[in-house]
Amino acid sequence: MSWAAHDLEPYAIQRHFGVKVAFVPLVIGSYSPDILSKWFVYGINVLGAEIRADDPVQFHRGWPGVGFTHSLGYGMLIAGLIWLIFGSRIWAWSFLLGHWAHALTDAGDTIGTMLFFPFTTETFGLGAWAYAGQYGRLVDAGAYFSGLGFVWDGVFLVYGLLSWRMFKREYFHEVIVKADPRFWGWMGRWLPETALLALYRASFFYGATRWIAWIIWAHVVHDFPLDLSWGGPGWIDAAYD
Amino acid sequence: MKELALYLVAAALYIALGVAYPSLLLSWFEGTAFLLLVVWIVPSLIRRLQR
């Protein structure tokens, strides 16, 4: 489980590949493994009734469950469908990169991801930070922003800040629009350049600000103990495969 | 510089609101809508009113 990495990593990938990737499918790919399932992992309250997976860990990362969305094969399948339906190789390839970044990043926690599903349902994980989704959003946030997970997010935040030129108007036109002129041209029929630039920068804005806000929330407003040990924080009973 | 200042204002406001109301930090759509509001919609409205 990662929090801001999925917002920030697409910028590092885009910076590396330049005009060879389209930014929008890259971001969609980066969000895609959790896009329909995360709410059911944490649970929601509807008219006083709690709707939540009986076993959030199994549901999120396992099989039976939707753990297959974090497999490399699932990314290839959806990328293949994008290629077939939209006929765009760059959209398919960019989606795949974003998806794989998500699946591999989430393999950093104590549960890991079923990278090679359907060939095996075994999860592969580094165990660097605790998986605590089973405790709900807020405790998960407190644990994540107290262990190595938020440090991994921070790597991409710093990378983005050091690559600040990629957020300039010139870069947007010369690289982002050039790589995907059809999408941005279509958007440009409805929105002015200021809005298009904001949309391009939005995931970085969202990732960076929530990263800072959650750290303040966890360590200033609340008192979640910081523990940067491998697999930490040790104060949470992390889920293991 | 004015553009950067708007983004910094948006970031400071979103962080402050997010710390006070963490549920605001959970939706990409809300975060993006907030950014569009601060850096595009509000300045556009102000420019129109000043004409």
Number of domains of chain B: 1
Low-confidence stretches of chain A: none
Strand segment tally of chain B: 0
Given the helix and strand composition of chain A, which structural class is it? mainly alpha
Identify low-pLDDT runs of chain B: none
| SS strand fraction of chain A | under 5%
Number of strands of chain A: 2
In one word, what is the shape of chain A? globular
Principal-axis shape of chain B? elongated
Mean pLDDT level of chain B: 96
Gyration radius of chain B (Cα, Å) is 12 Å
Strand order of the largest sheet of chain A: 1-2
Report the helical percentage of chain B: over 70%
First-to-last CA distance of chain A: 14 Å
Number of alpha- plus pi-helical segments of chain B = 2
Structural class of chain B: mainly alpha
- Provide the number of structural domains of chain A: 1
Helix-strand layout with pairing:
The complex is a heterodimer of chains A (241) and B (51).
Chain A: H1 5-17, H2 23-31, H3 38-42, E1 44-46, E2 49-51, H4 56-61, H5 72-86, H6 89-106, H7 137-144, H8 148-162, H9 169-179, H10 181-188, H11 193-221
Antiparallel strand pairs in A: 1-2
Chain B: H1 2-20, H2 28-50
What would the keywords be for this entry?
heterodimer; A: 241 residues; mainly alpha; two-stranded antiparallel sheet; 57% helix; globular; B: 51 residues; 2 helices; 82% helix; 0% strand
